[in-house]
Amino acid sequence: MTTQANAFDSHIEQWIKEQEMPWSVIRRNLTQANLAKHLGPGPLCILDAGGGNGPDSIPFARQGHFVEIVDYSEQMLADAVRRAKQADLQDRLAVHQANVQDVGSLFPDAHFDVVLCHNVLQYIEDVPALLKSLLLPLKTGGLMSLISINRYSQPYHAAFLRSDLAEALSQLESRQTKAFTFDTLMTNYSADEVCLMLENAGCQVEKDYGLRCLCDYWGNNDRKFDPAIAEQLERLEFALMDRYPYKLLARFYQVIARKR
User: Fold this and answer.
1) Does the pLDDT value for residue 63 go beyond 50?
2) What does the DSSP assignment read for 162-180?
């Protein structure tokens, strides 16, 4: 396995802890609500490419869909299996330890209704090649959901979360940032750049959403643990996520497209 795989394995405890943070819960709720607007009737076959321990795909197994997770982190996949067993969902979940870039050869036939690729693009060197590989096992008319860090958020993230104005200035011309949870470098894109890549790969973009348009820049993280404040923040995020220009500065974006 690669150095990145080792990085994800060695930081799984931090990742699991991060998933329980109020801002992560808000992002998951936004993600699920956005997908629900575009999904057809089930049960569906869903591929979670680079899905880790399944925070975005296991909820679909609970809804009666069939989920397959591909990830190169052994520890992440083991935790996904554990979570599925705890929820008695093992019959609706399969895991495959493999590089996400090999999805096309792992599944040579187009039999998935949905492909999720969330929080992965920033770790990939050749994103257009990845997208082409992900589309191979997706049925014609099938849905693709991509989530990644928004490059336009980088200066705001440095200034507001880390109070580092010098870094904020440097990030104006940079695509690279450090993933603090996994201690590895990321290359970030904007939603419009990813939309163009998807169209070039053979997709029709249906919608792009901003995820956490304001949450990451407001107040301090301690205040976000107050349930009342978290509820207000989530309500505000739902109001902003598809509104221009607010979505342009969201910490993450979600692009939903359909294979032509």
Assistant:
1) yes
2) S--HHHHHHGGG--EEEET
**What pTM does this model have?**
0.93
In terms of phi and psi (left: phi > 0; alpha: psi -120 to 50; beta: otherwise), the region of 199 is alpha
Instruction: Return the structure tokens found at 32.
Output: 């699920």
Closest C-alpha to 53, from 86, 15, 88, 103: 15
Q: Is the pLDDT of residue 36 over 70?
A: yes
Q: What pLDDT does residue 9 have? A: 65
Angstrom distance (rounded) from CA 224 to CA 144: 31
Cα 118 to Cα 234: distance, rounded to the nearest angstrom = 20
Q: For residue range 117-146, list pLDDT tens digits in order.
A: 999 999 999 999 999 999 999 999 999 999
Task: Give residue 100's identity as a one-letter amino acid code.
Answer: V
Q: Are 177 and 171 in contact (CB under 8 A)?
A: yes
pLDDT grade for 7, boundaries at 50, 70 and 90:
low
Pairing of strands 138-149, 112-118: parallel
C-alpha dist (Å) from residue 169 to 60, 142, 176: 41, 41, 13
Nearest to 225 by CA among 210, 215, 240: 215
The answer to whether 8 and 231 have CB atoms below 8 angstroms apart is no
Q: Are 259 and 139 in contact (CB under 8 A)?
A: yes
- For 248, how many CA atoms within 13 A lie in the half-sphere containing its CB? 3
Contact between 134 and 50 under an 8 Å Cβ cutoff? The reply is: no
Distance, C-alpha 123 to centroid of its chain: 12
